[in-house]
Amino acid sequence: MDPLWEMVFSWRRLTEPDGWLVLQPWLRHIRRDGDRRVISSGVRMWSVLTPLGPYFPDFLTPPEGAQGLGSALDAIRSTPRQRLKDEFARLEGVSPTPAWTRPLAAGDGASLLELTESMARYHAAVVQPYGDLIDEAVETDRLHRTGVAGSVETLLRGMWPLMNWRPPVLEVQYAYDRDLHLNGRGLRLVPSYFCRRTPVAFADPGLPPTVVYPLHHDWTWQRQLASGRRQDGALAALLGTTRSAVLAAVGAGATTTELAERLGISPSSVSRHTTVMREAGLLTTRRQGLSVLHQRTVLGSALLGTG
Q: 293 with 284: CB under 8 angstroms?
């Protein structure tokens, strides 16, 4: 997991109106148990520094994010002044910035320290509580895309349909038309839990080539389901084969229709099984618009062995 990219995308998931179903458990947890002051302040900060649109400053997501939050924040504090000036000038050209960004653009050390401290507080409130789940989803995505061979060729072909590998060109579904020439440099592919729809890349082609892409959330529940099937059958003996499969397939949250598609059974059959497990305290059910979202309870997760 790259903590800076996850923070950039997370504030957008917190504020978008359609409420992505797969993130409903995270959203409810953050809104119920999160530090509202820190989250509100963080969202305001990120919305200014990383606005929706064609550009936000690259210094906010340094490559050092691959080494963890501490290294990434150190890199931000060490950003050269000229780079800060140039990137904030470009930001100002696409989105007006308030007065509090002026010291940052000038490279003021105290302002950069305050910025990174705010980032750390936001990370602790919004990303860190789901760190284990995010790490598992990232690893599951990597395993599915690389396959058994684990070769670069397999990885690149596994990026379809987000990306299309036509050697030696990797075509990426991107919001803006541009070419990025590696010129002998490697390409860092970063799966993101909170990224949605299309990949994102650095604006500056001189930076280490990087493409951040939305990971495939369904693969997480598939891994849990496969793990459950490898167990000794005790859970299936207790609940029944179909109900134990439904419990595993719920993953981080799934609708009745999604469960039916995942397991190849009818929606009415799913509803019967989820009703029984809800009454037993293994699942909760919540209506989201025209859909019904099912989630495992603490007891359900513990029984499955994922809690």
A: no
- The Cα 176–Cα 67 span in angstroms is 29
Phi, psi of 286 (to 5 degrees): -140, 130
Within 10 Å of residue 132's Cβ, how many Cβ atoms?
9
Q: 113-125: per-residue pLDDT in tens?
A: 999 999 999 999 9
Which pTM does this prediction carry? 0.71
Across-strand partners of 212? 190, 200
Helices (H), the chain: 3-15, 24-33, 36-49, 69-77, 81-94, 102-105, 109-126, 131-146, 152-157, 218-229, 234-239, 241-249, 256-263, 267-279, 298-304
Expressed in percent and rounded to 5, the helix, strand and coil fractions of the chain are: 55, 10, 30
Strands 163-166 vs 254-255: parallel, antiparallel or unpaired: unpaired
Residues 252, 25: Cα–Cα separation, whole Å: 7
How large is the angle between the packed helices 36-49 and 3-15, nearest 10 degrees?
100
CA–CA separation, 306 vs 66, rounded Å?
26
Tens of pLDDT, residues 280-301: 999 999 886 777 888 888 888 7
Centroid of chain to Cα 112: 26
Q: 200-201 and 254-255: which strand pairing?
A: unpaired
Residue that the structure tokens 């000229």 belong to: 82
The number of beta carbons lying within 10 Å of the beta carbon of residue 251 is 26
